[in-house]
Structures are given as structure tokens and as C-alpha cells.
């Protein structure tokens, strides 16, 4: 699995951080998403998919495989 | 329009049914039979109502459905709401990107998860303090005025840098602004008084800066005092009425469901999922999130034309059985993260991390410290806030 984020779309809701703090963080200066791990380990995949689903702005893309 | 539509569009808002926690039955019926349907508003105008989870998410995530209240066709659910939107500088909740994003990004850092988690010990002390005072006053007490309302009021005052001694002043005025039966003149007056108050505050922070949000907005130098006041007003009103009503309505819902309450008491770690489930189940923002289409759009098989208004019913979407099995049951251990109680799309609640922390602490502390908490009046006598923009109870007399 490969993850990418679009910082222009992100509205800083923090849903992704709530879902998988190991993979997503928010930038100190403006609360916009910061990707910590673009190739998360298998045990986090389900939570990463949830993060992409609950992200309100559609800023998270998950590429399976 | 196709002939599939009922001859008479539903009159909006529809009355609630027998269960005061459930959305109006007519919205639930619409969700099952016609998830994108026509409704008639107070002034005789018509717009669309969207009730299913999937379509609510689609509309709220697509910025071709605009939040700009100055566009023709934007739906207002009361005349007061229309007056509020058309006579002031728009606050960010009623603006589209890029202007919306520019303003919102001035605030996102203050409400991000890392920041609100740090506030936990401070909020716990505030919660304990108000509970101490309520207990000291003795039973019966009104949980709304002695606990649910003062907690988020004090917290948002601290964050903004507003003097809490003035809380009665702004609580009363925001109540008028959010009351569906306030006259347009009452609403204008309340809004003007609050805006003046915040504008004077902004001027003062220019001379005597502190580390509150208002002061830092002033210090950025990008906004006039009137714009700072507009932002402050949004945060002040959005920041206390919502959390307050969630707190008292959650308390009531749990008192009415002893099995779920026992579960929470036995397993305090459940409080985080419990709060998400309560947000879903109670959906206190009950009057519909308003948008207006800027292009012709097809949603749920219906064509919504450019210039037509849409109301997104998050209360009905949060009871969608296709997403939440046995949606009408409160289940504190349920996976309810896909709820839309904070909205969806780029306007999704800015204060949600703060609201979560406040609610988790307020709910957990209340039931831990008062094991004998119960209603002080018959359940049938409780007055629900069907007449307010934010749902809840007007008062909640309790003993312990
Ligand atoms: C349980 C508590 C709360 C609920 C249920 C709630 C619900 C909502 C909803 C549904 C929206 C979206 C409106 C729309 O899309 O038209 C929203 C937006 C907003 N909320 Fe909350 N809210 C809560 C607490 C708070 C708190 C504590 C604050 C702040 C300090 C806050 C500040 C805001 C702001 C500033 C917006 C506008 C965001 C934007 O337009 O980008 N809310 N809220
Ligand atoms: S969930 Fe989406 S919008 Fe929210 S912070 Fe993460 S990437 Fe940004």
C-alpha cells in the first residue's frame, strides 16, 4: 500500500490523525496534514483506509499494492 | 422534474415523532423512499432535502454545492437566519474556497489534535470545578445551566481571550441568535451587540496583546478589527452552544438507557467510542446544512439545477441503516466513526477535536462522580429544543 496526501485540499480536520497517528500528523504552523509514513505496514492498512474514507476533503489517496 | 415526486413537497421542518432522540419520521421516510426530495420552506420557497448518508457526503464534499449565503437560491430555514447572513461580513462558514480556506487556515493550528490534547488537564479541572459547585449548591440542580453550558463557555473564553465574567452577556445574545422564533429585529440587535463587544475586544488586544486567539488574529495584521470580530463571534457561538447541548442531551440519553450507562461505568475506556456514538445518535445540528448548487448536478438520480438550494440532513444520514446497522439503537461500543455529526467536506467542524475532549471529560466525570444521578422531574415534562438551531433540552433538572 502506498499513501499520498494533497495539502492543498486538506482542511485540517484531524480525522486522519485520530484514525492512524502512526501515519498522519498535522503541521505545527497551520494544522494541515503531514504524512509520516507513505508505505505503512500491513497491520495499519485497515485504519489507513478508514482515514481515507472519513477524510472530509478527499485529501488522502490510497494506492493498493 | 419527474412525476415520481409527491404532489405536495414536504413542509420543512417536519415535526419530531414519539422518540425525542430520533429525527422527524418524515425525514427517515424520505431517506428510505426518496433520499433527494423537494421540501417547502417557511416563506413558501422550495429547495431540495438530502437524507441518505452517501448523498449527504457527496453534496457536502463537492464545492460546486456552495456555502456562499449571498448567492441567489441559498436556502434559509428561518427569516432570522436570512437576515443574519445578508447583512454582515460573511464568516467563513458561509464562504467558499479559496477565501474560506484562507480564513480557516488562520485557525486550524489552534484546534488541531495535538493542541487540544494538551488542554485535557485544564479542562478536567474546569469540569471538576463546576461539578463541585453544583454539588455544593445541592440537589435538585439544572444540569444545563450548572454544568453543560458553563464548561464549554469557560473553555472557549480562555482560548479566545474573552473575559468569562461577561458570559451571561454573550450566552443570552447567542441564544437569541439561534432561536427559530426570534424576530429579525431581535436577531439584528443581538448580533450587533455581540459584534460591537468583540470589536472593542479586538481593539483592546491591539493595545494589550495576550496569547489568546483573538489577540493573535489581530497581531497577524491581515484582518481588520471587524473581520476579527466576525471570526470571534463564530467561534464563541459555535463553540459553546453545540458542546453544551451535546453534554446535556448525552446525559439524558444515558439516563434513559441504563444498560448502556452501566456498560460505560464498568468500562470507562469506552468513553471515546461512546462519545462518537452519542454524536451520531443525537445529531444535535438538526436543521440541515444549507448549500446552493452552482452548476446542474445529478445526485441520487435527481437533477439539481444551478441556483437551487439543498439542505443536508445529517440527523437522517446518521440513522442510515445501510451504514449503521440497527441505527436506531444507541450502542456505545459501535464503530461509528463514519458519522457526519460534524458535517463533511471542507467546512467540517473546525472545533471537533476540542468538542471531543470536552465531551469525553464532561460525560465520564459526571457519571463517575455522581453514581446516583437521576432526573428530578418526570421524563414527560422535559422540554426539548425543537425551536432552536441546535437541538437539546432547555433544562435538565437532576438529583444525585
Ligand atoms: C458537539 C459539538 C459540535 C458539533 C456537533 C458541531 C457541528 C458542526 C457542524 C455540523 C459544522 C458544519 C457546518 C456546515 O458545513 O455548514 C460545524 C462547523 C464549524 N464548527 Fe462546529 N460543532 C461542534 C463544536 C464546535 C466547537 C467546540 C467549535 C469551536 C470552537 C466549533 C466551531 C466550528 C466552526 C468555526 C465551524 C465552521 C467551519 C468551516 O466552515 O470551515 N464547533 N460544526
Ligand atoms: S482527515 Fe483529511 S482534511 Fe482532515 S487533516 Fe487529515 S488529510 Fe486533512
UniProtKB/TrEMBL annotation, chain A:
Residues 1-29 form the 4Fe-4S ferredoxin-type domain. InterPro entries: 3Fe4S_ferredoxin, 4Fe4S_Fe-S-bd, Fe-S_cluster_ET. The keyword Metal-binding applies. Pfam families: Fer4_15. The keyword Iron-sulfur applies. Its cofactor is [3Fe-4S] cluster. Keywords: 3Fe-4S, Electron transport, Iron, Iron-sulfur, Metal-binding, Transport. It comes from the Bacteria. Ferredoxins are iron-sulfur proteins that transfer electrons in a wide variety of metabolic reactions. This is Ferredoxin. PROSITE patterns: 4FE4S_FER_2. It comes from Streptantibioticus ferralitis.
Automatic annotation (TrEMBL), chain B:
It comes from the Bacteria. Keywords: Heme, Iron, Metal-binding, Monooxygenase, Oxidoreductase. PROSITE patterns: CYTOCHROME_P450. The keyword Iron applies. The keyword Thylakoid does not apply. Pfam families: p450. PANTHER family: CYTOCHROME P450 YJIB-RELATED, P450, PUTATIVE (EUROFUNG)-RELATED. Belongs to the cytochrome P450 family. This is Cytochrome P450.
Amino acid at each position: 500500500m502506498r499513501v499520498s496526501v494533497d495539502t492543498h485540499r486538506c482542511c485540517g480536520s484531524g480525522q486522519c490523525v485520530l484514525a492512524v497517528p502512526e501515519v498522519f500528523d498535522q503541521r505545527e504552523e497551520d494544522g494541515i496534514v503531514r504524512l509520516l509514513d507513505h508505505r505503512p505496514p500491513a497491520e495499519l492498512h485497515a485504519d489507513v483506509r478508514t482515514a481515507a474514507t472519513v477524510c472530509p476533503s478527499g485529501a488522502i489517496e490510497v494506492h493498493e499494492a | 422534474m419527474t412525476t415520481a415526486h409527491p404532489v405536495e413537497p414536504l413542509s420543512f421542518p417536519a415535526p419530531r415523532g414519539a422518540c425525542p432522540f430520533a429525527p422527524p419520521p418524515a425525514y427517515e421516510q424520505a431517506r428510505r423512499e426518496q433520499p433527494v426530495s423537494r421540501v417547502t420552506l417557511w416563506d413558501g420557497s422550495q429547495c431540495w432535502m438530502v437524507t441518505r448518508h452517501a448523498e449527504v457526503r457527496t453534496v457536502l464534499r463537492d464545492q460546486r454545492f456552495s456555502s456562499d449565503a449571498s448567492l441567489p437560491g441559498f436556502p434559509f430555514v428561518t427569516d432570522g437566519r436570512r437576515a443574519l447572513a445578508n447583512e454582515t461580513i460573511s464568516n467563513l462558514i458561509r464562504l467558499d474556497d479559496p477565501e474560506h480556506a484562507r480564513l480557516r487556515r488562520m485557525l486550524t493550528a489552534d484546534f488541531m489534535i495535538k493542541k487540544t490534547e494538551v488542554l485535557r488537564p485544564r479542562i478536567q479541572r474546569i469540569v471538576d470545578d463546576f461539578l463541585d459547585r453544583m454539588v455544593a449548591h445541592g440537589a435538585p440542580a439544572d444540569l444545563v445551566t450548572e454544568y453543560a453550558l458553563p464548561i464549554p463557555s469557560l473553555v472557549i473564553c480562555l482560548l479566545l481571550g474573552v473575559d468569562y465574567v461577561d458570559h451571561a452577556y454573550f450566552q443570552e445574545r447567542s441564544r437569541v441568535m439561534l432561536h427559530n422564533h426570534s424576530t429579525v429585529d431581535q436577531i439584528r440587535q443581538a448580533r450587533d451587540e455581540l459584534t460591537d463587544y468583540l470589536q472593542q475586544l479586538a481593539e483592546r488586544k491591539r493595545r494589550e496583546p495576550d496569547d489568546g486567539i483573538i489577540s493573535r488574529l489581530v497581531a497577524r495584521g491581515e484582518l481588520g478589527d471587524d473581520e476579527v470580530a466576525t471570526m470571534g463571534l463564530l467561534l464563541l457561538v459555535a463553540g459553546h452552544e453545540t458542546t453544551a447541548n451535546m453534554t446535556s442531551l448525552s446525559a439524558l440519553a444515558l439516563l434513559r438507557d441504563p444498560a448502556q450507562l452501566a456498560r460505560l461505568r464498568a468500562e470507562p475506556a469506552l468513553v471515546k467510542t461512546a462519545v462518537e456514538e452519542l454524536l451520531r445518535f443525537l445529531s444535535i445540528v438538526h436543521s440541515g446544512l444549507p448549500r446552493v448548487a452552482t452548476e446542474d448536478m445529478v445526485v441520487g438520480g435527481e437533477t439539481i439545477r444551478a441556483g437551487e438550494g439543498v439542505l443536508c440532513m445529517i440527523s437522517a444520514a446518521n440513522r442510515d441503516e445501510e451504514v449503521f446497522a440497527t441505527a436506531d439503537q444507541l450502542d456505545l461500543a459501535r464503530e461509528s466513526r463514519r458519522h457526519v455529526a460534524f458535517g463533511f467536506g471542507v467546512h467540517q467542524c473546525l472545533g471537533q477535536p476540542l468538542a471531543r475532549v470536552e465531551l469525553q471529560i464532561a460525560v465520564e466525570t459526571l457519571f463517575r462522580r455522581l453514581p446516583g444521578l437521576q432526573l428530578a422531574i418526570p421524563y414527560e415534562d422535559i422540554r426539548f429544543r425543537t425551536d432552536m438551531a441546535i437541538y437539546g433540552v432547555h433544562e435538565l433538572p437532576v438529583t444525585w
